[in-house]
């Protein structure tokens, strides 16, 4: 870069407000179609396991405790997830979605990325079964 152009850029930048955002102190609304954390709506889940079969990252495991009683636990590994939305497409019951508001997923260890969807009692039973 020529010194003249560089000096012009420096002087312009000196008097302009920075265009960078002061995240996390200032936040812009996320786009509606942003693909964040997986969400599971248990009400219509049949435990078919299609979401887990079709997940290219092996980020979902469906644990069937009692199919007749509709007791399922979905084990989601968010640190494997590529947010491709294949599971959302594959679920014929419309149980899955990717949140557009829950997307700040950074953590210092892997624990927060192992997520169990289901009732507290079902999750405890599933953990016992898989231990
Ligand atoms: S969004 Fe893609 S990678 Fe993530 S759980 Fe669904 S299918 Fe797997
Ligand atoms: S594909 Fe849908 S209905 Fe089937 S186990 Fe996954 S969430 Fe449940």
What's this model, at a glance?
With 131 residues, the protein is an alpha+beta fold. The protein has helices spanning 3-15, 50-54, 86-90, 120-130, and strands spanning 38-40, 60-66, 71-77, 96-98, 114-117. The protein has one domain (30-130): Alpha-Beta Plaits (2-Layer Sandwich), CATH 3.30.70.3270.
Explain this structure to me?
The chain has 131 residues and is of the alpha+beta class. The chain has one domain: Alpha-Beta Plaits. It is built from 4 helices and 5 strands, in the order H-E-H-E-E-H-E-E-H. The strands form 2 sheets. A 3-stranded antiparallel beta sheet has the order 2-3-5. The longest helix has 13 residues, at 3-15. The protein is elongated. The N and C termini lie far apart (62 Å). One iron/sulfur cluster binds at residues 38, 55, 57, 59-60, 81-87. One iron/sulfur cluster is lined by residues 45-51, 62, 90-91, 93, 95-96.
CATH architecture: 2-Layer Sandwich
Give the fraction of residues assigned to helices: 25-40%
Average pLDDT level: 93
CATH T-level fold name: Alpha-Beta Plaits
Instruction: Give, in spatial order, the strands making up the sheet with the most strands.
Output: 2-3-5
Topology record:
Layout: H1 3-15, E1 38-40, H2 50-54, E2 60-66, E3 71-77, H3 86-90, E4 96-98, E5 114-117, H4 120-130
Antiparallel strand pairs: 1-4, 2-3, 3-5
The structure holds iron/sulfur cluster (2 copies).
One iron/sulfur cluster binds at residues 38, 55, 57, 59-60, 81-87.
